[in-house]
Amino acid sequence: MNTVANLVQDAGLGLRRSFLAEIIESAPKNVSFYEVAPENWMTHGGKLGKQFRAMTEQFDFVCHGLSLSIGSTDPLDEIFVAEVKKFMQQHQIKFYSEHLSYCSHQGHLYDLMPIPFTSDAVTHTAKRIQRVQDILEQKIAIENVSYYAAPGQEMDEIDFFNAVIEEADCDVLIDLNNIYVNSVNHGYDAEDFLKAIPANRIAYAHIAGHYVEEDDFLIDTHGADVIDPVWTLLAKAYELYGVFPTLLERDFNIPSLDILLKEVDTICSIQNSWLSQHHQKSA
């Protein structure tokens, strides 16, 4: 991915099999990088494996893990981390990110569960992140996650997040939709949360849609269009920190590629708007 210094626009898209062949046939000009969950691609050979290799030979990729279970009390799956490292080397994938959550307890739970916001959990989780970074021989980014309950809470979400990031000495994958969803569900100010993120650690961002169960209860589904308040939060993030690479996630109810690319265009538009304003101020 480009650095902010030489960025014109750096918008990404989560790669899904439903539109893989379409992208190979005619690559979208507004997408500068793609993201994949390594668990979904590491074991594929045959036609699908060749198609994926054709993509990674042409475009920048990042990995976004689903099953590392970084906050779990189960032993860290170092074999899996080593497989991720091999996969990244094979495909020249530049970066790896994971969720600040856990998804296993004596077996997989098949959902992203909230880590208790406690000082003990900070130390436990940070050590596991450090170990992953040691194996991969590079920093990883940790994503702020949506959650619906906070068992054993001793500190605010943002304080817990920042403490883990600082102690682990890792980067940040900032998810704007998760900030918005949590702000509605837990009654805090989304911009205040955003302002407290360690800006110097932001590697890239996610933006996505969600489901409205009630006015005060949102569910993070990645299965709908991005709504205006989340786009506004992205623009605010750029205003605070400058433009950084930003990727559209869509995991369910996946529409046609054309519709997804219109949302990628919106990312580009917000990025270019900031760049134009920034250049005018510095001229």
Question: How do the helices and strands line up, and which of them pair or pack?
Answer:
Blueprint: E1 11-14, H1 20-25, E2 33-36, H2 46-58, E3 60-64, H3 78-90, E4 96-99, E5 102-104, E6 108-113, H4 119-136, E7 141-143, H5 157-168, E8 171-175, H6 176-186, H7 190-195, E9 202-207, E10 211-214, E11 217-219, H8 228-241, E12 246-248, H9 257-282
Parallel strand pairs: 1-2, 1-12, 2-3, 3-4, 4-7, 7-8, 8-9, 9-12
Antiparallel strand pairs: 5-6, 10-11
Overview of this protein structure:
- The protein is built from 9 helices and 12 strands.
- The protein has 283 residues and is an alpha/beta fold.
- The protein has a single domain (4-282), classed as Divalent-metal-dependent TIM barrel enzymes (TIM Barrel), CATH 3.20.20.
- Helices cover 42% and strands 18% of the residues.
- The radius of gyration is 18 Å and the shape is globular.
